Each structure stands twice: as C-alpha cells, then as structure tokens.
Amino acid sequence: MPESRTFEIRTFGCQMNEHDSERLAGLFVARGLRPVGAGDVADVVVFNTCTIRENADLKLYSALGHLKAEKARRPDLQIAVGGCMAQKDQDRILERAPWVDVVFGTHNLAEAPRLLERSREEGPLVDIWPAPDPDAARDMAPALYAVRESDFAAWMTIQTGCDNTCAYCIVPSVRGGEISRPLDDLVNEARLLAARGVTEITVLGQNVNSYGRDLTGRSPLFAQLLRRLGDVDGLERVRFTSPHPKDLREDTIAAMAETPNVCPQLHLPLQSGSDRVLAAMRRGYTAERYLARLSAARAAIDDLHVTTDIIVGFPGETEDDFRRTLDVVAEAEYDSAYPFQFSPREGTRAAHYVEEFVPAEVVRERFLRLKDVLDRSALRHHEAREGRLEEVLVEGPSRTNDAVFSGRTRQGKLVHFDPSPTLKAGSLVDVRITHGAPYHLRGTLESVRRGPRHKTRLTVLAS
Ligand code: SAH
Ligand code: SF4
Ligand code: F3S
After folding, report:
1. Stretch (H or E) spanning 105
2. CA distance 243 to 161
3. Interatomic CA distance for residues 187 and 367, integer angstroms
4. CA 342–ligand 2 middle distance (angstroms)
5. 152, 175, 351, 435: which could form a disulfide with 344 (CB 3.0–4.6 Å)?
6. What is the residue extent of each domain of the chain?
C-alpha cells in the first residue's frame, strides 16, 4: 500500500553526517515516504545529531523543545533522534524529551525507517548498537539510493570510524574504529555518479590517509584511490576531508600532484602549535613535522589552498603554548581556518584533566585573538586573487541572497557573481575576481565553458 506520509531530516555536525542523512532519506523514499514540501510540517521528523562539542548537544535539546507542543497537537507526528549524540546519550534522550518516538545510533542508521514503523504499534523505542556490523558498514549499499542535495556535487564516504585516540575527541567512541569500503565499490560508485552527470565528488573519512589499512592489513590505499578516481570519465573535481597530518604521506602528495582532477585543496587540522599540547592531545606529530609536511605539499602542488582546525584552551595550555600556535599559523599562511574553544566531552581523556582546565574568559580571549589573525590571513589570500580568472562550478542563487549567484573555484573558495538568466546550476564558467572578502570572493562572469552535465535530477540514483 503506498505510504503518503512525509518526512524531514534535520542534520547537525559534519559532512559525513550530512551524507548519512542523504542515505537515510533514500531509505525513506524507498519505503514510499515523500520528502516534505517547503513550508509544510512533516509527519516524520528525524534529527541526525552531532556531539563534537557541548553546544551541539544544547542545539538538539532546544530543537526538540520546539517540537513538544507540535507533538501534543498532532499525536501522529513521529520524532526520531539518531546519530552521534544519540549514540552517546542513549536512554537519556527519552528521559529528557519523552515526546520522542525513536532513538537510534550511528551503527544502525539503516534501521531507522523500520524502527519508526514498529514504534507506531509499540510506542517509544531506543535501539542503539554498541558496535557496527562491519559487513554492513563496508557494503554501505544505501549510498546508491541516497536522495542527494545536489545533482552535480556529491559526497562519498570511503571509511567510517576512527582508530586515533585524540584526547579531546568523542568521535571514536560514537563512531567506532575505522572500517574502509572496498576500493572497487568506491570507484564503481564514482563512475555511476559521474555517468549521471556529477562533476565533483568530495571523499569523506575521519582520517582519509589511512583508508584501506584495515583492508590490506598493512598499507593504506588512499593514494591509489585518488589515482583511480582520476580515471573516472566525466569526473572533473575530486576533493577530500580530512587527512591526519601524522599520516599525510609522500604517496598521497604525489597522487594529488599527478592526478589532474584532484583539486588543489588540503584541509590539514593543526589543533595546536605547541609540541607539549600536541603530545597531551596525542596527535602524533610536532609543529615542525606538521610544517614540513605542509611545505612538501605546497612544493608539489601548484596554488594549493590550505585550511585547518585549531582548538584553543586545551587543558594546561599556557600563554606560551598559545603563542606557539600563533607562530605556526603565521608560518602556515592558511587560506581559512576553523578555530574552536575546547569543550570537555564525557568519556574522553581530556575531560578528566579538570585541574588543568583553562578559565573560560582566557579561552575566549585567546579564541578572539586567534580568529582575528586567521581572518586577516584569509583576507590577504582572497585579495591576492583579485584580477585572476577562476573556473567556477555554479551552484545557482546564493543561499542568503537570491539576487547573487554563487559557486566554487577549484580551490573550493566560495565566489559570488551577478545572476545570469540563462545560467544553470551545474554549469562550469570562468569568473574574473574583482574583490576578495574574508569569507568569499566576488567576481564577474566572463564566459561559460559548458552547461550542466546532469540530465535528470539526481534524486534516487539506483531507481
Ligand atoms: N577527524 C577529523 C576531526 C573531526 S572533528 C580530524 O581529525 O581532522 C572536527 C574538529 O572539531 C576537530 O578537528 C577539532 O578541531 C574539533 N574538536 C573535536 N573535539 C573537540 C572538543 N572536544 N572541543 C573543541 N573542539 C573539538
Ligand atoms: Fe577525533 Fe582525532 Fe579521530 Fe579526528 S583523528 S576523529 S580528531 S580522534
Ligand atoms: Fe559530529 Fe559525529 Fe560528525 S560528533 S562532527 S556528527 S562524526
């Protein structure tokens, strides 16, 4: 019997979570549910959550609070909470928000539609798997059924989980250890996507450099993967995130440099510039080694765009440690960066270093100083691009202002330019950069290289 109910997925957190939501949407569609229309209220609302920092948790409980009255008005409304925070909080979610119907974890995302159906008969359900089923994680068949947000730029998860033990980080405990998908499956998925008109693929993993280590029992296969993606017909841009600095090897740098469709973009999370803090964080590199790898990458790859993540206020961080971070930032010359204030996560080592916690006002002050330096560095990089002609993949009207079109350069920089009535999303164009701002570039459209490659909407790929 056809299902006429509608669903909506609200996603928090990283790109991997965004892509998990696309896969979940594909599973709902396969079971006959429809995505809710703009402005309508769905019959099934799913929160795919994040718990990387405390404010991610607060955001979820506030969003759930907003739905409480709606649920009282419409008892048929079903609410599910899944993802990283659900994996961490488990039963506590129903204790704090008893109007929730289903709680599922990171390892049983594919069960969510069935759990929602069961809960219509049985009432509220919590089903959290303590660990992944490795075969299911490797298979990731639902990736092919994903309802994707974009028709021309797709995400591809190559590995789940993380084998590292960074002292501040909750990810390994909520996502499990590293499980890589087979190389041939990934190349096939990329081929299918490219055949449907996808121009750009962003490869996702918590530590992409170690992709394949669990498959071979020895060496990683990341460089091979990049080279194989380089042979996929029609695939014009490949990006990836995140590599771990300790595992960024020469073969990856060489594969980036020698594979024309791999974009000149590297997100290399620094976290701290102080060797003492890096050791306490258990990051496995020193500032010197980090900078050496970065300069090897810059030497091999022309016009490399470099971004990073930095944590300020890790327990025990002194003013001197923080200055070392500023020194590395000055030397690394980042194009842009994401600074974070340390947030203790229950179950991580660093959460126990209570005596060494840095006072909140000191953390805030360092954060603002760092942000100022990073913003100025980003602005310098953007201004340096004024006058250049950049290849831009058109995304269409900008999210914040539909009187402006936006798109991305090969380096991944956001560009705004005047709308053109005939220009379609997915086109590849040349834009002359006229102005560099801290978070984007502004330019004028000079020529259209080609229109969109996709012919149909890339909704359910395998249908
Ligand atoms: N696997 C990725 C990180 C994913 S989490 C990597 O290693 O690069 C994204 C970023 O969140 C991290 O790089 C780190 O800077 C930040 N982060 C993680 N845990 C944090 C915490 N407890 N407090 C503050 N920032 C944190
Ligand atoms: Fe977290 Fe470190 Fe793994 Fe990244 S590499 S997910 S920061 S444990
Ligand atoms: Fe958040 Fe989980 Fe990603 S904690 S950052 S959604 S892996």
Report:
1. none
2. 14
3. 41
4. 14
5. 351
6. 6-127, 134-263, 274-384, 389-450
Q: Whose CA is nearest to atom 2 of ligand 1?
A: 206
Ligand 3 centroid – CA 452 distance (Å): 32
Superfamily of domain 389-450: Nucleic acid-binding proteins (2.40.50.140)
Partnered with residue 239 across adjacent β-strands are 202
Give the atom of ligand 1 at the shortest distance from the alpha carbon of 309: 15
84 Cα nearest atom in ligand 3: 2
Distance 50 CA to ligand 3 centre (A): 5
Query: Distances in Å between the alpha carbon of 212 and those of 14, 174, 251, 287, 337?
Result: 22, 21, 14, 27, 28
- What does the block give as tokens for 295? 């300069």
CA–centroid distance, residue 283 to ligand 2 (Å): 9
The CATH T-level fold of domain 274-384 is: Transcription Regulator spoIIAA (3.30.750)
Mutate to test the pocket of ligand 1, among 169, 171, 306, 367 (most ligand atoms within 8 A of CB): 169
Candidates 203, 198, 237, 235; CA nearest to 222 is 203
Domains 6-127 and 389-450 share a fold: no
Q: What is the DSSP letter of 84?
A: H
pLDDT per residue, tens digit, the chain (463 aa), is 455 899 999 999 999 999 999 999 999 998 999 999 888 879 999 999 999 999 988 889 999 999 999 999 999 999 999 999 999 999 999 999 999 999 999 999 999 999 999 999 999 999 999 999 988 888 876 677 788 888 899 999 999 999 999 999 999 999 999 999 999 999 999 999 999 899 999 999 999 999 999 999 989 999 999 999 999 999 999 999 999 999 999 999 999 999 999 999 999 999 999 999 999 999 999 999 999 999 999 999 999 999 999 999 999 999 999 999 999 999 999 999 999 999 999 999 999 999 999 999 999 999 999 999 999 999 999 999 999 999 999 998 887 887 899 999 999 999 999 988 889 999 999 999 999 999 999 999 999 999 998 766 655 544 3
Which residue from 109, 107, 128 is spatially nearest to 176, judged by alpha carbons?
107
Measure 16 CA to ligand 2 centroid, in angstroms. Answer: 13
Please name the residue whose Cα sits nearest to atom 4 of ligand 2: 206
Q: Residue 18 CA: which ligand is closest?
A: 3
Residue from 89, 147, 135, 136 nearest 108 by CA? 136
Residue of 10, 14, 162, 169 to test ligand 3 pocket, by largest number of atoms within 8 Å of CB: 14
User: Which class does domain 6-127 fall in?
Assistant: alpha beta
Nearest ligand (C-alpha, residue 86): 3
Indicate the CATH number of 134-263 among 1.20.120.550, 3.40.930.10, 1.10.3720.10, 3.30.750.210.
Answer: 3.30.750.210
The alpha carbon of 164 and the centre of ligand 2 are apart by a number of angstroms equal to 6
Asked whether 308 lines ligand 2 (CB < 6 A), one says no
